[in-house]
Amino acid sequence: MQQINNTTRSIGNFGEDIATRYLEARDFKIVERNYYAKKLGEIDIIAHKENTLHFIEVKSGDTGYDPVYNVTPSKIRKVINSAYYFMKERKLDLPFSIDALIIRKGEVELIENITL
């Protein structure tokens, strides 16, 4: 497994904290953070709103590079596979959405229903 340094993890946690507050202010209920599906990947935030589960990839950055470009097809496939695993593991049969939450220069954007 690839080792992530503490600085990268701290930045990721900071972005996920902002994302969690943003979602909760919009009536999402946080189900889990940093869910890891063995050999499939990680989901940053799993949230529930209006009978729909939202599997959310969080990307943030304050540089000139837009973090939305880090939401790659490969990453989305991992989130989708992990979402199916989560639902099977918990025996859930609910509508769900694969989303990205982008934090750039203090602004937050939720992109729902990402498709490949």
Write up this protein:
This protein is of the alpha+beta class. It has one domain: Trna Endonuclease, Chain: A, domain 1 (3-Layer(aba) Sandwich), CATH 3.40.1350. Helices cover 32% and strands 36% of the residues. Strands 1-2-3-4-5 form a 5-stranded mixed beta sheet.
Give the class-level CATH name. Alpha Beta
For the sheet with most strands, the description reads: 5 strands, mixed
Overall geometry comes to globular
Average pLDDT level:
89
Distance between the termini: 26 Å
Strand content: 35-45%
**Number of E-state strands:** 5
Secondary structure layout:
Layout (H helix, E strand, L loop, with lengths): L5 H20 L3 E9 L3 E9 L2 E10 L11 H17 L6 E9 L2 E5 L5
Parallel strand pairs: 3-4
Antiparallel strand pairs: 1-2, 2-3, 4-5
How do you describe this structure in short?
The chain is α+β, with helices and mostly antiparallel strands and 116 residues long. It has helices at 6-25, 73-89; strands spanning 29-37, 41-49, 52-61, 96-104, 107-111.
